[in-house]
Specification:
Length: 368
Amino acid sequence: MSLEMYERVRSLAPDFAQSVNRAVVLSHNEAEFERRVNNKIEQIAKELGVQLLFREQYTLATGRADAVYNRFVIEYELPGSLRPNLNHGHTKHAVQQVKDYIVGLAKAEKHDRDRLLGVAFDGHYFIFVRYHEGHWIVEEPLEVNKNSCERFLRSLFSLSSGRALIPENLVEDFGSQNVLSHQVTRALYNALEGHSGDLTAHLFEQWKLFFGETAGADAAAGELKHKKELRAFARGMGLRGGQVDMPRFLFALHTYFSFLVKNIARLVLQAYAGGGLGTTPLTTIANLQGEALRHELRHLESGGLFRALGLKNLLEGDFFAWYLDAWNPDIEEALRQVLARLAEYNPVTVQDDPYSARDLLKKLYHYL
């Protein structure tokens, strides 16, 4: 979901809340309420220019789901039948139905259950249900108002577009087994060669000193080259056995991770901070070339982009901006591919799936 669409969804939420209230008053049964709300959703989708993958009365192995919008399941209930108490009999039953439909949809369409979201909805309350790392998470019922309707619409449209910003997807796209990770790290590794006496060389030497103090001198000296995973990564880069300069390899790898983290932060903060003067969307940056791309990345590394978003001291420069001084065509091409792939992600899913977001960078770091 783009920043523009995010803002448009926010502006449409009060009208959607009023439509839900009207549907509650005018509907005589659950089916009528469902039809009125689905029609309103279709109307909003047309206004937004979004094509929704909609399945009505979708038959699954675990039952028949009232409405499925891509990875979002809606279980409609008779208006007024849900309660703010999750232990209430009918409310508990509705939640169980949502769980069953999530399981059925995951099996039918080969989805990971963690990437699906469901909601029980009666026009008075939303009850969001998700599955995360082996456990069901059922949120407290939310009264229908403009804020909860914004949450509902944002979830619906974000799960219908873009790649979810969750650890599993980041690991798949940027983890140690990915060819792109090999390409980027190789470009950075090769760019470090031949530097002596310049800023790049000084930053590398300073990093080696700090890394040796935190990870142990043996690690910095090369003991890590015997680790199976690192040897496999090095082979993916085209290096073999004794060819690996382990400190240089690890510095290149940390630089790659740092680059990913900063641009994930850019992606999310631009969505939630409402843009800002002097900030350029990631989709635009991924198409820049040569000095234009280098200039934009220097703006990021200096912290200027985050200051433009009103966030001071978030990034003040570190060891890992050295690649800008060692810039070459291989670095440019590799980093542009990283940016292009990141631009496909939907940053709003950070809020839609807060439980995965907590481990976002930790899991990426471990798998990289």
